[in-house]
Amino acid sequence: MLRYTIVRFLQIVVIMLIYITIVWFIFYSMPGDVTNKFIGNPKIKPAAIKAMKAEFGFDKPVGTRYLLYMRDLLTGHLGVSFDFYPRTVWSIISERLPRTVTLFLTIVLFEYGIGFYLGKLLAWHRGGFLDYSATVVGVGLWTMFLPVWALLLIWALAYMAGWFPLGQFVTPLKWLSAPHDANYVFIRMLATFFGATFIYAVIWAALRRVIHDPRVRRGVNWSVAGVITVVPLIIWARSGIGSYAVDIMWHMALPFITLVSIGFAGAMLVMRDSMLDTIKEDYITTARAKGLPDKVIRDHHAARTALLPLATGFVLAIAFSLDGAVLTETIFSWPGIGYTLVRAVSTQDYPLAVGAYAFLGFIALVAHYVADLLYAVLDPRISYHRGGA
Length: 389
What we know:
- By secondary structure, this protein is mostly helical.
- Helix content is about 75%, strand content about 0%.
- Helix 5 crosses helix 10 (about 240-280), helix 7 (about 145-160) crosses helix 10 and helix 11 packs antiparallel against helix 12.
- The radius of gyration is 25 Å and the shape is globular.
- It starts with a helix and ends in an 11-residue tail after the last helix.
């Protein structure tokens, strides 16, 4: 397993370098450069344009510029943005990427959480009205064309009902007198969420070792979860910037609803099919013969085994959802990495476009790497030794 992990890691590194090379040459081999935008301006002298070419490296051959870029890439320097000059590409990506990751990671968590729960229920009560109706609805939503569904919800829930904003990251007028910028508030929202989640995970793990009665442990878990949820809300309400955090969450709501309403259906159908195959296994029949309760058989025996394709699909869904951020963020004007990529390409901001593509590719490759390792952890029948399956 260790050997496989190292080999796959090295493969990921090589593929990443090849990927960045292809993306770089696609953009920088195109005719023209950023100085073309200023050539028609009589106020800019030829000497200034020549100096600009030298600053951005357009006075060197393509091969030399590529080698210099790869050298800078290894030191963490992705160049300077043309459109946001003099800001560096890294500063822009570090500002926009958390918005994309937070939105789509939250969406995928809810998609697969809802899909897992509904899928195991439908399979366990197969053949009933709930099974047939939920399957029909799930297939209908799963085959829905995302732009059409998104525009329909924007029209119904934002334009007609007025429940949600039409787009953007914040309400501009509200933030005119804000004590901090949106990124300051957003980063602290993330820190609060991940901090509370970590604390709950530690307490939950400790309770499993100390309290052995499932009912008592369940009650304590819910109490701890309630305290960890309420305390941060009180702190945010008294902080003076709580209303600005609510404004950001309000703008996240509609893209969240749109994508979860489509995405959960695929996870539900996968879990249902996997669960139907699992409950036919002999060990499920044996568990029933022992007189175990249906809930125990369903949750602790069948659902855990059926989780394998859903778990690996969950990891890959994170990568694919980030790739789909280009379309989703453009529809909702969400200023994340996808929206930034579209703007960079349309304005010929090559350093920013290459940097955005590089990060999306990196996340996709890491997700594939984690999915491969997850197979070995969840399914001990899989062997990565030479000659193994």
